[in-house]
Each structure stands twice: as structure tokens, then as C-alpha cells.
Amino acid sequence: MNFTPHRTLGFALGFLWLSILVAGIALSIAQLGQGLISPISLVWLGLLLLALPLALLVLNRLYGLVTARYRVDRDGLYIRWGMSYEQIPLGMISEVGPPREKLHAGELSGSQELEPRRPGFGFWWPGCMVGRARTESGGAVDFFASSGQLFVIRTTTGRAVAISPPDADAFQGAVFSATRMGSLEAIPERSVRADFLVTRVWSDGLARGLILTGLLIPLLLLGALVIMAPTLPELIPFGFGPTGQPTPLAPPGRLLLLPMIAGLVWIADLILGAWFFGNEADRPVAYVLWIAAIAAGALLAGATWQLLSA
After folding, report:
1. Bridge partners, residue 284, by sequence
2. Count of structural domains within the chain
3. What is the dihedral of CA 292, 294, 297, 302, to 10 degrees?
4. With b meaning 16 or more CB within 10 Å and e meaning fewer, what string describes 73-94?
5. What is the pTM of this model?
6. Non-local CB neighbours of 222 within 8 Å, separated by 6+ positions
7. pLDDT in tens, 31-64
8. Which of 193, 210, 231 marks a domain boundary?
């Protein structure tokens, strides 16, 4: 039996955040395109480089809501949420119910403990509660929930997964009926996470160094342009003709396009590199992409210096 969680609130807030971020991106591009270089330019470019990855994160969460499903059969419970996947054999489920609460003032019932009702610090919002929270004893609860009544799936291995089926009674009935009928096939417990790439990439020293170097180049280039802004002429060459002569002349603010392009290349290579990094056989491709972002930034910095020296 399949269950689709309520998604209206999650979609509404997600599209609101996405609209704000897209408006910030458009405003940043419009301000940077005015042709003026000043310390405020650093703010606009920083806003652009911050809003772009955040917009991608919101799109990823919205994709998770679109694909969110819970399925129960005679063999197990299956949770699909975007690129994350949970497979729990029914025989390993020890308890299904709402989060545990303290029964009396500060007292717990036996070995039970207070369980969180929302993820901890992370990228989530009401209606799209995806993440992990810690219990009072340090245990973890993984959230794949939207809105409505929250259920916690507890396993014999000590794991806890929080979900939000749209019909609590029907969900509990489906789990009970499937358990009573017995399993047809033994399935393994599986847990696939989309966010594991962030930890794996950051824990790799070479990857971390390449990524930070690629980010540093456009930021240094932008900072240099802001510092040099008072000394720049009203018009500077922006390009070279067939004979190698600098042409045409443009406001110095046009140079802001170069660190902006370098930053966009860095973001694109960061995402593509992280994708390839997930497969160990393709890991060299990830390193090449991050090196390419460094090379692109260095070339654009060199082009900036050449234009200013012309």
C-alpha cells in the first residue's frame, strides 16, 4: 500500500523561498550590470554567489516533496524522498507510533525518552521536515516528514525514522496487516542519503583544497577591483580586436562580469564534481572539474590584468 504525505504547506513555503532567492539573483545581476565599481559591488556579488546555491538547495527539497512516498508490503517499509531511500524489513520494526513524550513532570516511562518533533539545525522548513535530530541520550531520529501527524518507526537495531503518513489509522493498519500475513522474501535494511556527498567531499583533503582555491580566486579578483575602483579611468578597454589592439571602451564596472563568470564556473564545477565524486571510479573526473574551475578563474584574472594594463 502506498501513502503520499501532505505537501501543500511544503510547496507553498518552498516556492516562496525560491521566489525570494530568484528575486535576489535578478537584483544582483541588475546592480552589477550598471557599470559601477564600489564597495557595495562586493555585497551584490556575494548575494549572487550565496543565492544561487541556496536556490539549488530549495529546488532539491522541492524535488524531494514531489517524489515523497511511503510504501508498505509484506516484506518491509520503503521510504522514497528525492535521492534518499530507506528500506526497513518488517521483522526489524519494533514499534510504530507518535514521538514519545514525558508522562509526568520531568519523568520518563521506563527506558523511554523524549523524542524530537522536528529536525535539528539544517536546511528544512515547516511542511518539508528533512534532516536528523538527536534524542536526550544522543540517539538519532531521521526525519522524512511534511505536515500532519508524526509517526516514528523504531527498529530492533535502535534506529528511529520519523514520517508523516496522510492517514495515520490506515498506515498503522497496513503495517499491522502486513506483519500478520508474514514476509514473502527476506530483504536487507538499506539507507541511502543524498547529503552524504557533502561529508565525503569535505573530508577529502585534496577536494577541500581545490574547492576553496577555486572560490578564493574570484573573491580576490573582486576585492582587487573594488580596491582599485577610485583609480580607474571612466572608460577602459573591454576586449581585443583582430589585430590585438584593445577595443571597445566600456565603463570599468563591466570588469565585474569577469569575477562573476569565474564564480558561476566555480559553482557549476562544484556541483558536477560532487556528482562524480560519489562514484569512486569517477573521482578523478571530479578533481579535473575542480582544477578546471581554478584554471578558469586564473585565466579570467589574467584577462582582467591584461585589460587594465592595455
Report:
1. none
2. 2
3. -100
4. bebbbbbbbbebebbbbbebbe
5. 0.72
6. 41, 42, 45, 256, 259
7. 876 656 767 777 887 788 788 888 988 998 999 9
8. 193
